[in-house]
Amino acid sequence: MSLAEKKVEELMTSPPVCISKDSPVGKALSLMLDHDFSHLIAVDGKRVAGVVSMWDLVDVLGSSRFRNVPVSRIHVSAVMSEPAVTIQADDKVEDAKRIMLERDFSCLPVMRGDNLVGIITETDIVKMLKDSSAVRDLMRSSYPKVMPIDRIVHARAIMIENGVRVIPVVEEGRLVGIVTERALAKAFYHLRDESRVSHIEEAVRRVIVEDVMEESPEVLREDQSIEEAAALFYKARIPALPVIEGDLVKGMLERKSLLLRV
């Protein structure tokens, strides 16, 4: 049986980690960091209310939308994506893949009838991928970059503008690190948590990419196989990986692109 023909319940994570929609965003961030997740299912009692992601936290905590609201008073319900798009446990992985690609989702809550039983993510699907073709066939050679001296507000703006959740940090074309959605979510949350509301923007603008970037990240080469890349994505737990030649950045491989090979 091909991977696409398998049932969702064969690949899903069960039981899923959930959070009340009325919880503060700080609790959501802590849960995601503790479990090494990028998403949580938000619930209202037993009802699936939405999905909150690490990127949702970056989007909201780094914006001026809640500029005058203490971070302790920002709740999951204010940042989550709703209504949640779900999939049934006995649906095929092909169906989950199609929804993720069409809706640009990275996960789907899994239901059995009206009951929540799990969650299926991009990583759950691509980690099973067997494909000997080369990384160069799927990588994006034209990809935004930032420098260590750039401000994190600039990195966030570039990521939003280009629809990316990881961005390489370069000096003279050489890779020196990456900025991830996880790093930005942590930075923006702690800045808002530690600063007085009136001083938040000033505090944020003092932080540069070098302060939050991940040095010596996992990397790929153009000639590595998609199967090797899938295994590395499972290990690294990030949405994109740099592709390098020596220490020069040749492009980025996005995890979602691997779904095209399922």
Automatic annotation (TrEMBL):
Domain CBS, residue spans: 12-71, 80-135, 139-194, 213-262
Keywords: CBS domain
Domain of life: Archaea
InterPro entries named in the record: CBS_dom, CBS_dom_sf, Diverse_CBS-Domain
PANTHER family noted in UniProt: CBS DOMAIN-CONTAINING PROTEIN (PTHR43080:SF2), CBS DOMAIN-CONTAINING PROTEIN CBSX3, MITOCHONDRIAL (PTHR43080)
UniProt-recorded name of the protein: CBS domain-containing protein
Source species: Candidatus Methanodesulfokora washburnensis
